[in-house]
């Protein structure tokens, strides 16, 4: 049947057919690897060390999964949100997600009743990201990517709208709501102890809310810039500010993902019960690091991981707490060294305090460089 083939090619085909009919005997190592492969194709047993690469490329051999990878490069997303963006049923998206997770291209994190996906943190995912950066998409692929980005923007807008609606309704109740979780006096004493007795210099109060942190630490600061994206909260904070520190504190509308400041203009930054509202907490931390001078400090106060799902549905919390491991990794990625961690147990939720010191430029960004898309920069010293 091979008579029509050239002699050299005919010999190679016959050799391959003989190999398929009479495969070589496996070594003990190969038999173990073959058993672990389970339902994988038989040919895989001849090269067990290639399994990881094969899994990676199999996972990418579907346009929907490649679209999901592009989305996860933008931000961490819930499975339901991915389903909305790609326009497929949640069970179908869950199947694609499982394949990406098994290949190490995505990481799955359960938070209450929601499941969040992020891009994998291994070498394979990093290599894929570098490859996507270097390979320009085709015109057809670019259309899909741009359409997905538009739908992703709608998801972000809906998240932001829910949070803003909450703040508009509950602005006057915010101090009372905080007291339900943990005694604020105890938290404030712990904050003061971590920050120490020295001057806080140029203080940045990110997500100021009612302005409590600005009021508390203004006497120990040269100046305070209190930022919040909610006009209602800023109006409330201005009304609550004591007259004797009014000359030290300035209020400014802004987003913690795009702080309207030049790099290295703040000495101390505080995010008090703010980060659980962030869609991408690691970005908020990186943006905070950008505006800190070298040696500047950031203090984050938030909850330890918990399962109080009503905080998400009722109070618009995007995250149900954070672990020390998460925070340490995000600090390191932003060029911040974890200095101290404090735990305040008691009440319905556990409060955590993470103090970090800016030690260098955030990974992938030089000091003073603004985040792409950020608002026009200002100097904190000039504002203060």
Concise summary:
With 384 residues, the protein is of the alpha/beta class.
What does this structure look like?
The chain is an alpha/beta fold and 384 residues long. Among the domains are: 7-46, no CATH class; 174-383, Vaccinia Virus protein VP39 (Rossmann fold), CATH 3.40.50.150. 46% of the residues lie in helices and 17% in strands. It is built from 16 helices and ten strands. A seven-stranded mixed β-sheet has the order 6-5-4-7-8-10-9, with helices on both faces. Strand 5 (223-228), helix 12 (231-240) and strand 6 (249-253) form a beta-alpha-beta unit. Helix 5 crosses helix 8 (139-170). The relative contact order is 0.09.
Biggest pleated sheet? 7 strands, mixed
> Mean pLDDT, as a whole number?
79
Going across the biggest sheet, name each strand in turn: 6-5-4-7-8-10-9
Q: What structural category arises from helix and sheet content?
A: alpha/beta
Low-confidence stretches: 1-5, 12-21, 26-51, 363-377
Query: What's the total helix number?
Result: 16
Overall 3D geometry?
globular
Report the radius of gyration as a whole number of Å. 26 Å
- CATH homologous superfamily annotation of the domain at 174-383: Vaccinia Virus protein VP39
Examine the coordinates and then state which fold CATH places here, giving the name of the CATH topology of the domain at 174-383: Rossmann fold
| CATH first level of the domain at 174-383 | Alpha Beta
The termini sit apart by: 87 Å
Total number of beta strands: 10
**Per CATH, which architecture of the domain at 174-383?**
3-Layer(aba) Sandwich
Helix content: 40-55%
């Amino acid at each position: 049947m091979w008579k029509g083939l050239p002699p050299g090619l005919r010999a190679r085909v016959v050799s391959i057919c003989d190999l398929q009919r009479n495969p070589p005997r496996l070594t003990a190592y190969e038999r173990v690897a073959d058993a672990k492969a389970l339902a994988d194709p038989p040919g895989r047993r001849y090269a067990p060390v290639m399994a990881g690469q094969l899994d990676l490329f199999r996972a990418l051999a579907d346009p929907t999964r490649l679209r999901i990878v592009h989305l996860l490069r933008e931000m961490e997303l819930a499975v339901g949100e991915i389903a909305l963006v790609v326009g497929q049923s949640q069970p179908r998206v869950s199947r694609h997600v499982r394949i990406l997770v098994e290949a190490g291209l995505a990481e799955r994190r359960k938070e209450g009743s929601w499941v969040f996906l992020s891009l994998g943190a291994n070498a394979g995912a990093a290599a894929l990201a570098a490859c996507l950066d270097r390979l320009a998409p085709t015109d057809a692929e670019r259309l899909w990517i741009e359409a997905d980005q538009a739908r992703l923007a709608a998801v972000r807008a809906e998240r932001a709208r829910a949070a803003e609606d909450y703040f508009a309704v509950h602005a006057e109740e915010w101090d009372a709501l905080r007291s339900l979780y943990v005694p604020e006096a105890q938290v404030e004493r712990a904050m003061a102890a971590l920050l120490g007795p020295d001057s806080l210099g140029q203080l940045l109060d990110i997500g100021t809310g009612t302005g409590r942190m600005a009021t508390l630490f203004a006497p120990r600061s040269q100046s305070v810039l209190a930022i919040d994206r909610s006009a209602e909260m800023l109006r409330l904070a201005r009304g609550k500010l004591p007259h004797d520190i009014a000359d030290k504190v300035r209020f400014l509308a802004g987003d913690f993902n795009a702080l309207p400041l030049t790099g290295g203009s703040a000495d101390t930054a505080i995010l008090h019960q703010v980060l659980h509202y962030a869609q991408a907490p690691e970005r908020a931390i990186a943006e905070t690091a950008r505006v800190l001078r070298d040696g500047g400090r950031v203090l984050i106060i938030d909850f330890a991981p918990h399962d109080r799902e009503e905080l998400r549905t009722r109070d618009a919390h995007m995250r149900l707490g954070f672990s020390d491991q998460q925070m340490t990794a995000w600090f390191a990625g932003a060029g911040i060294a974890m200095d101290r961690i404090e735990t305040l147990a008691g009440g319905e939720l556990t409060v955590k305090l993470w103090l970090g010191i800016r030690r260098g430029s955030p990974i992938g960004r030089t000091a003073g460089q603004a985040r792409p898309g950020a608002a026009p920069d200002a100097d904190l010293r000039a504002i203060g």
